[in-house]
Amino acid sequence: MMVLGRIVAPFGVQGWLKIHPFGDDPAAWRKMTHWWLAEDPDGPESAWVQYKLASCRPHGKGLVALLEGVPDRNAAEAIEGRYVGAPRDAMPAPEKDEYYWGDLVGLDVVNETDETLGRVSGLISTGAHDVLQVEDGETERLIPFVAAYVLDVDLAARRIRVAWQKDW
Q1: Mapping DSSP to helix (H, G, I), strand (E, B) and coil, where does residue 81 land?
Q2: In what order do the strands lie in the sheet with 139-144?
Q3: How far is CA 150 from CA 22, 83, 122, 145, 159, in A?
Q4: Which residue has the higher pLDDT, 157 or 94?
Q5: PRC barrel domain location, by residue?
Q6: Which pTM does this prediction carry?
Q7: I need a labelling partner for 28 at 20 to 30 A (CA). Which of 103, 112, 138, 150 fits?
């Protein structure tokens, strides 16, 4: 399951939900007919409950959405704080040179001289750009996910090549 965001609050009295998205293109979520909700983002697939998306629209830096089965504010309050996710195959295909964070986590990171720098353990959104969290044992490197440093992402080979030195 790919975690997309989190329900942060009810929105109004008719069951609408305010969503904090974790990615940079939450408008693409409208293409999905169903969303899945869970209390624990790392829980088993069986813990995710499927909801049909009735409506979704941008709101500020996030989204507001209406799910079937959430008819009023009380029902919305009952699922506040839940994570929003979707199976990878339910997600819209990313554009060229765009990636879902979940597809990058676990990839090996090497530099231009083929030195292994570690493995992507997560990403951080800083507002200006995303940052790869690369772990190698006890060492963590934070590498900006921008063209100046990220030279190639090869999902098939499960490798990211970067312009970064091991001792930085």
Answers
A1: coil
A2: 139-144, 130-136, 116-125, 108-111, 159-162, 150-154
A3: 21, 29, 15, 6, 11
A4: 157
A5: 96-168
A6: 0.71
A7: 150
What's the one-letter identity of residue 129?
A: H
| Residue 24 in this model has a pLDDT that exceeds 70 | no
Q: What is the mean pLDDT of residues 69-82?
A: 97
Q: If you search the block for the tokens 């965001």, which residue do you land on?
A: 5
Query: Is the residue at 167 inside a domain?
Result: no
Range of the domain at 144: 101-162
Q: How far apart are CA 36 and CA 143, in angstroms?
A: 31
Beta-strand pair 34-38/2-11? unpaired
Contact indicator for 140, 134 with CB cutoff of 8 Å: yes
> In CATH, what number is assigned to the domain containing residue 43?
2.40.30.60
- Separation between Cα atoms, residue 34 and residue 67, nearest integer Å: 9
